Amino acid sequence: MQEVDGQVVEVVGVGEEAVHPHLATVTCSLSAHKASAELCRASVEKRREYTIQTFRQKGSESFRTEEDLQRKENDRYTLVTVVTATLPTEGAHAAVNVLMEKLGTSVTIDKITYHHAPEELSKARVVAGQRAAQEAFRRAKCMTEAVGASLGPPLALHEEQCRHLGEIQEVQRGACSSAPIAHTHSHTPITLQSVVRARFALVTHGVPKTKKEPR
Fold first, then answer.
1. For the structural domain made of 23-115, what CATH number should be given?
2. Could you tell me if residue 126 is left (phi over 0), alpha (psi between -120 and 50 degrees) or otherwise beta?
3. CA distances from 131 to 16, 108, 145 (A)
4. pLDDT by residue (tens digit) across 80-122?
5. Between helices 37-57 and 89-103, what is the axis angle to 10°?
6. pLDDT in tens, 157-186
7. What is the fold of 2-20+118-167+189-204?
8. How many CA within 13 A on the CB side of residue 53?
9. Alpha helices in the chain (DSSP H)
């Protein structure tokens, strides 16, 4: 076989890897309408403690609570307590289902925001790049064999781009829905797509000509 100077095969390979969200932030609200601020807090406090305990049991390590107390007409008070927790995705689904089953209309699930762990996205980029390079090699090999040649060593390998094909979704849901959230909303994966351009030497199968010896 003979590697011919200047003869190359150049191809583009595409590889993809999907990454599901690993974390979810759940925001829920607890409210009470009573004759005094003390009665409002007493009504909300037990539910607040149960909500935080449920999130903790499902894997959350941090919580944030906010209160909004307002005095209405006829000396009535309204207290709204918002609880926010971040936990593993499956734990978030389980926690929401428990809260809605146990507290019913006494809790409102305001929003679930899904997050992708940076380290998992980095791993996915590596996998997508590897698949793109492998695809480029396979395409180059098939093309050279189709013309009766062989694939030589790689001359250049360049990743032209790595982009996201999917977006993180925010899911909003009211407390009156009866179906478990894990069955009604699926978290959307991000698909990472890598595009690689590769150049290989083209090797022919001809026998090189030899110079004739002078007589």
1. 3.30.70.600
2. alpha
3. 7, 44, 21
4. 999 999 999 899 999 999 999 999 989 999 999 888 888 888 9
5. 140
6. 999 999 888 654 444 443 333 333 332 334
7. Translation Initiation Factor IF3 (3.30.110)
8. 7
9. 37-57, 89-103, 118-146, 181-184
